[in-house]
Amino acid sequence: MRVLGPIEVAGEPLSPRLCRLIAALAAAPGTVVPVDQLAEAVWAEDQPKNAEAALHNLVARLRARLPGEAIVTRPPGYLLAAPTDAAEFEALTAKGRFSEALALWRGPAFAGVDVPAAEAEAARLEELRLGAVPPYGADADRLAAVANGLAERLGADRFARAGRRGAAMPADAVIAYADTALSAVAKR
């Protein structure tokens, strides 16, 4: 089940109601979500007269698309037991495998789904995603050592001209040059 981008099950998009149901369940990993909260997430203010029965039917439709016991009935509602790409992302980042973790993202988490609980979880996941993107600033000491070594070999003048005029340190010039180069690439 994929929620890091548009919601998909087995590579297939789902109806808006099924997406809202998955979003409400996936936004509370390992937690039983009460039937009334799920009904609110799926139908908002346009709930059918017998929302509980309609929700049971919707859960049955979703279960038919998922393997095994992906959705478990537990009073007072349902629990998502199927693995999601969000859970995989968190596991990979915990292991320091950032490239693999970031590759799971296909767009904003829960894209296109208007469920308040999912919006809060999407914000949390986005913060984790941003933490998994290592800016070169985090390696500033290493970068400075490399820049200083290069400056000694090639002459600080070359870096200052390439980066910015009056750079106090060769590392500053290399960082400025890298910023300029990255900006040029991003514009293409």
Task: Describe the model.
With 188 residues, the protein is mainly alpha-helical. It contains nine helices and five strands. Mean pLDDT is 82; it is low at 162-169.
Enumerate how many helices there are, as a single number.
9
Mean pLDDT: 82
Low-confidence stretches: 162-169
Biggest beta sheet attributes: 3 strands, antiparallel
Order of neighbouring strands in the sheet with most strands: 3-5-4
Which structural class fits the helix and strand makeup? mainly alpha
Please indicate the percent range of residues in DSSP E strands (runs of 2 or more).
Answer: 5-15%
H/E element order? EEHEHHEEHHHHHH
How many domains, as an integer? 2
Distance between the termini: 34 Å
Radius of gyration: 24 Å
What top-tier CATH class of the largest domain fits best? Answer: Mainly Alpha
CATH architecture of the largest domain: Orthogonal Bundle
Q: What portion of residues is helical?
A: 55-70%
Number of DSSP strand runs: 5
Structure at a glance:
The chain is mainly alpha-helical and 188 residues long. Helix content is 57%, strand content 7%. The chain has helices at 16-26, 35-43, 51-65, 85-94, 98-103, 116-132, 140-154, 156-162, 170-187, and strands spanning 8-9, 12-13, 33-34, 71-74, 77-80.
